[in-house]
Structures are given as C-alpha cells and as structure tokens.
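[audit] Reproducing an earlier prediction to check determinism. Same input, same settings, fresh worker. If the tokens differ from the archived copy the diff job will pick it up downstream; this log only records the rerun itself.
[audit] input (112 residues):
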Amino acid sequence: MDDVVYIGNDVATIEEFKEEMMKRYEMTDLGLLYHFLGIGVIQEASTIFIHQRKYAETLLEKFGLKGCKPVSTPLIANEKLKKDDGSEPADASLYKSLVGSLLYLTATRSNL
C-alpha cells in the first residue's frame, strides 16, 4: 500500500488531480491529512502546522524521562568528565537507540 499526499492552493487543480489519479489507479480519498509517518498535521484556513508531539512523548516515556523538567543546559557547567566515575557501565544499545531517536526528531524539527 502506498500513500500519496498532495497539497496546493488552487482547489480546482487539486480536485482535477485527485479525479485523474482515481481514474488511473485504484485509490481512495481519505480526506484531510491528520497524521503521516509519525508527524501530526493541523490544517487551518490559511496555515498548516506539523508537529511530533506524540513521538516526543513516546521517547520521554521509553527512556524514563517523562517527569523531567526542561533546562537550557542539561549538564552541570564546568563538570570534569571521567572515564571511570564509579557508576554502572552505560547500556550501549539503549544509548544508541536514544541518540538515533533524537537525531530523527531534530532532523524533522530543527528548532529543537
């Protein structure tokens, strides 16, 4: 199954495109877009707003950060990091999963 998302500012052209596509291919019109590839879509008369609220909330839950408060700098300033600080070794696969998830989130939301 393939999804097609089409946009435009001319309603007549959009309708013409949709009708032509429905003639050529077995296609169903699902109406306005609300969610696509993990991205939420809010459409208003003159604007379209996209967000990843659900994805970000899922990440916070998955990595145990749901109750954390936002800070501008999430590290202690001037902290000297050591290879062996007496703590448990980090879970490399969990770390890679977290970094990959954050990379995806920030690639789609450059203001984060």
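[audit] rerun output stored. Observation attached for the diff report: The first strand starts at residue 35 and ends at 36.
[audit] end
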